[in-house]
Amino acid sequence: MTMTTRSRRTKPIADALRGYTSKAFRRFGFAQREVISRWPEIVGTVLADHCLPEKLSFPPGQKTGGTLHVRVGSGFALELQHLEPLVIEKINVFYGYPAVQKLRLRQGPLPTLRSRRAKRNYHLSDSERSKLESRLSPIKDSALKDALSQLGTAILAEEKSEIKEPLKGRFHRRGKSMPPK
Among residues 122, 117, 132, 126, which one has the least CA distance to residue 161? Predict the structure, then answer.
């Protein structure tokens, strides 16, 4: 009887499932499962919210010039059709060779994404909030006023987040940190 040695380190679940999932991905033509898992990075979050790759098929005996079957949410197929050359270019850059030659679009419902961008809670200072409320005071319609208030809060919070905080310390030319003045 042979004894197998077991590692005491924990193993990420993605690594543990890699052997099981690679067979399923290969069955649908995806040699690299990263095309599915990194789809938002490849095509961008806007496109990824409205489409999802389903299958990659190649001509017999070839691994280039394939057709990527993409499920598209209704109403977005025409947009994706116009962006097809750009999407194909992005996919081929990801693969590193001309793997995809054309897209075949199939309209249908997309699975709901748990990773959809969550609603952010924006925090404004009291002065910013009062300034926003004073600008919205002439508006009589309460629904419109609430919607504009939410929009204004989001815009002001985004502007605040774009302003970079100053560095805590200065850097010496040799890479050593110096205390702030």
Answer: 122
Within 8 A by CB and 6+ apart from 88, the residues are 68, 100, 101, 102, 103
Q: Give the mean pLDDT of 132-140.
A: 91
Fold for the domain defined by 17-107? GMP Synthetase; Chain A, domain 3 (3.30.300)
Query: How many angstroms separate the Cα of 29 from the Cα of each of 22, 24, 55, 75, 93?
Result: 10, 9, 6, 27, 18
Q: Is the dihedral of CA 131, 159, 49, 12 positive or negative?
A: negative
Q: Which of 5-9, 110-114, 125-129, 164-168 has the highest mean pLDDT?
A: 125-129
Nearest to 53 by CA among 90, 112, 116, 106: 106
pTM to 2 decimal places: 0.49
Domain boundaries, the chain: 17-107, 126-162
Mean pLDDT of the chain: 76
What distance in Å separates the CA atoms of residue 135 and residue 114, rounded to the nearest whole number?
36
Which of the two residues, 36 and 52, has the higher pLDDT score? 52
Q: Give, for 82, the enclosing helix (H) or strand (E).
A: helix 77-82
Q: State both tokens at 105.
A: 């679009």
Phi, psi of 170, rounded to the nearest 5 degrees = -95, 160
